[in-house]
Amino acid sequence: MKTKIIILSIILAFSSSLFAQDILNQYLETAAKNNPALKAKFNEYNASLEKVPQVGALPDPTLTFGYFAMPVETKNGPQNLKVSYTQMFPWFGTLNSKEDIFVSAAKSKYEDFEDAKSKLFFDVKSTYYDLYYIKKGIDITLENITILETFKRLALIKIEAGTASGVDELRVELELNDLENTLALLKDKWFVNTVKFNNLLNVDNNSDIQIPETLWIDDIKFSRQAIIDSLTQNNHQLKSLDFMKESFAHSEHLGKKQGTPNIIVGVDYTSIGKSGVSPDAGKDALLFKVGITIPLYRKKYSAMVNEAQIQQQVVEDKKQNQVNVLETLFEKVYSEYADANRRITLYEKQSELAKRAIKLLENEYANNGKNFEEILRMERKVLKYSIDLEKARADKQASIAFINYLMGM
User: Fold this and answer.
1) What is the pLDDT averaged over residues 167-184?
2) Which of 68, 245, 254, 404 is most buried, judged by most C-beta within 10 A?
3) CA distance 8 to 390
4) Confidence of residue 271 (pLDDT cuts 50, 70, 90)
5) What pLDDT digit, counting tens, does each position of 114-144 carry?
């Protein structure tokens, strides 16, 4: 029968954990839809996409109209007016190079958006874990206040019976005052963090936040080396730098293309009067023309190529520095994750031992009125271990959330 109860308890705890994680996922979806900073990043990406058709289009054609105030006489007759249409075509591949520059730049902006989303998700999760810790702190403190009220009544009974000192009541009062102050501080922290959480979701500050009774105990799902490999390959900041470097590579290619001629195609139409003496008098003239631009001033094109090459090296150096920063951050957070695991194990043991000690001390006090101060001291330890245990659980999940952010998840 006991085995069935234990199995049922495990199933219920697991179901509760899944439900709590589902609630957090709903909060993440709300943040992704509503957060104004994230919307701004996405609109920056959309705006960068609009650059592509701008640079990929041909230059506007030129249409000119000329009227001879004093007609120019020719043997075919006087020239009355002239209409000219000209279109310039960049050298083959130039427009594609321009498009490639801004396509890569847009991809870099998209990775910036993805990084902002991952950072937002981490902020939502870490604030949620802080709220869990604060709520559990409030619950545990209230529970300890109730226990101390019981101790106070017990002390009064012992004092009236003459088996305890009146100091015992004062000691309980001192402990209660400390707990009331702690409770007020925790409530202030709860209010501040609920405002922060709801602002991340961009919802009303008075919106209710559902907090689980017990935080889930997820562990990191990847090996240390797998995390480092994923960090260097999938981190959105690094991918953004990769696309930025790619954009400068296309700029280098464009610089070389800019040093090639542009092709000019046009047509001129001239209106001619009928007063000429030639057999073709009065016939309008049509002129087709083809030309090229001559890129004589080579320094500026060489400078464009050199600038793009230098910018690529700048981005490469930034990326290497960012890899070093991210690896340092990972090692720091991974140590915090390991520390949180150790603290969870420690405080679970310490809480159990402190509770057993209190039971023994309570029996002694009930029998002979001794060790009341020791009961209060041990009760403080139980309170501390219980709150520290919940802090360790919250810190562990926050560490996992930050590692996922570094991995671009």
Assistant:
1) 89
2) 254
3) 24
4) confident
5) 999 999 999 999 999 999 999 999 999 999 9
